[in-house]
């Protein structure tokens, strides 16, 4: 289900919704910690989670790994959040393509 559809459904049902935002880790241990945290926080029932792409110099491949695992392993809808601030147009264009 699309995220917007989840939001609309929550509004129509009259209950609040929330999401969590995470940053992709830069280290292997950070990746382990993040997956543990996502697993624990998914029990709280967010409508979706947001993974920031390229925050603080994180690798795009790490973002893709987090998104893939969150959807496949934890069954949570996931959105990638692209940081455009201080990024050259070429880098943004490449990420979008």
Automatic annotation (TrEMBL):
Source organism superkingdom: Eukaryota
GO biological process: one example: tetrahydrofolate interconversion
Pathway(s) the chain acts in: One-carbon metabolism; tetrahydrofolate interconversion
Record bears the keyword Flavoprotein: yes
GO cellular component, one term: cytosol
Cofactor: FAD
MF annotations from Gene Ontology: FAD binding; methylenetetrahydrofolate reductase [NAD(P)H] activity
Claim: Hydrolase is one of the keywords in the record: no
Assigned keywords, A-Z: FAD, Flavoprotein, Oxidoreductase
Family: Belongs to the methylenetetrahydrofolate reductase family.
This protein's name: Methylenetetrahydrofolate reductase (NAD(P)H)
């Amino acid at each position: 289900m699309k995220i917007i559809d989840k939001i609309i459904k929550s509004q129509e049902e009259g209950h609040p919704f929330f999401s969590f935002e995470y940053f992709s880790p830069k280290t292997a241990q950070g990746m382990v910690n993040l997956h543990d945290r996502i697993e624990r926080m998914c029990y709280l029932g967010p409508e979706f989670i947001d993974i920031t792409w390229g925050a603080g110099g994180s690798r795009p491949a790490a973002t893709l790994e987090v998104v893939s695992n969150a959807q496949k392993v934890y069954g949570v809808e996931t959105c990638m959040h692209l940081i455009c601030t201080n990024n050259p147009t070429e880098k943004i264009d490449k990420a979008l393509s």
